[in-house]
Specification:
single chain; 305 residues; alpha/beta; 6-stranded mixed beta sheet; globular
């Protein structure tokens, strides 16, 4: 059996009054494109910090490519590249100098060919000799991605890598990551852009309150919710009986989640009976956002019970 890219066993992290992680078990296979999703405060960043060796767990173990992140921290760190959520940079160096320095941390003295390739794929070539403090926020985030890749780690963790960046970079980054994944790199992604996770990730774990509340293949998660989304533009009020089905509402449109496609007709009849005119209608399948909201709702209901 091949060594897991990341193996998390009974992992807990407790602070004085908060349990950030509660006995988390998680295994990411080599070569996976794996999603780690959850609301703010779910424990995602804490988990990543422990995997990266930046935070010490209260109990449990984590291995990266078979190396314990505490007992074999050097080998574990060499196997891992992490793109942090925060924009952390040294303002005294150019982009190329930063990447050469980062290479030196891993004992790579002659790494310019790979640095050039990484910069080209992240559209940083024309910024190679620009000081870090002169870059925009989006460009700084590109450099963080490049820093995580300079030592060609087999496992890459992306913590909200496209937060606050433009669409062009987002598309370029995913093309590059897809290529690295095809070449055998394991990718772990946390993101609030659920359409990214749905498109890129073969398997997804969802965290809430420091616990794993879902862990399945993406397509199986999508099959879990058989409902449909109905987007309507109305002239008149939505019937009260349908208001509990609202998942999005604006001055222009109302989006409902219905359990079955056959319920669409009943919803339209309810509008007509009330005298509300349905001026436009779009019906689509449930997406990962629907699944996410349902899983989080079910987890909250279990915790209350």
């Amino acid at each position: 059996m091949p060594t897991a890219a990341i193996a998390v066993s009974a992992l807990s992290k407790r602070y004085a009054r908060v349990t950030a992680l509660d006995a988390v078990d998680l295994t990411v296979a080599p070569g996976e494109f794996f999603g780690l999703l959850g609301p703010n405060g779910a424990g995602k960043t804490t988990l990543i910090s422990i995997v990266a060796g930046l935070t010490r767990a209260s109990s449990g173990r984590v291995r990266v490519m078979g190396y314990d992140v505490v007992d074999d921290f050097r080998a574990a760190r060499h196997s891992l590249g992490v793109v942090p959520q925060e924009l952390v940079f040294d303002p005294f160096f150019t982009v190329r100098e930063m990447l050469r320095i980062q290479s030196g941390y891993f004992g790579l003295a002659h790494n310019d060919a790979w640095i050039d390739e990484v910069m080209a794929n992240l559209d940083l070539t024309d910024k190679a000799d620009v000081n870090m403090r002169a870059l925009s926020g989006g460009m700084k985030r590109r450099v963080l991605v490049a820093q995580a890749l300079v030592h060609r780690p087999p496992v890459i963790v992306l913590d909200e890598p496209t937060a606050g960046v433009d669409v062009e970079l987002r598309q370029g980054l995913w093309q590059f990551m897809a290529r690295l994944n095809r070449d055998g790199h394991t990718i772990v992604l946390t993101t609030h852009y659920l359409e990214e996770a749905q498109q890129m990730c073969g398997r997804i774990a969802m965290l809430k309150g420091g616990r794993v509340v879902a862990l399945e293949r993406t397509r199986d998660l999508l099959h879990r919710i058989s409902g449909v989304q109905v987007s309507m533009r109305l002239h008149g009020p939505l019937p009260d009986a349908l208001r509990a089905r609202i998942i999005e509402e604006s001055s222009e449109r109302i989006v409902l989640r219905l359990a079955h496609a056959r319920d669409v007709g009943a919803a339209l009849e309810a509008c007509r009976s009330q005298g509300t005119d349905v001026q436009d209608l779009e019906v689509g399948a449930a997406d990962l956002e629907d699944v996410f909201l349902q899983v989080m709702s079910d987890a909250s209901a279990r915790s209350v019970a």
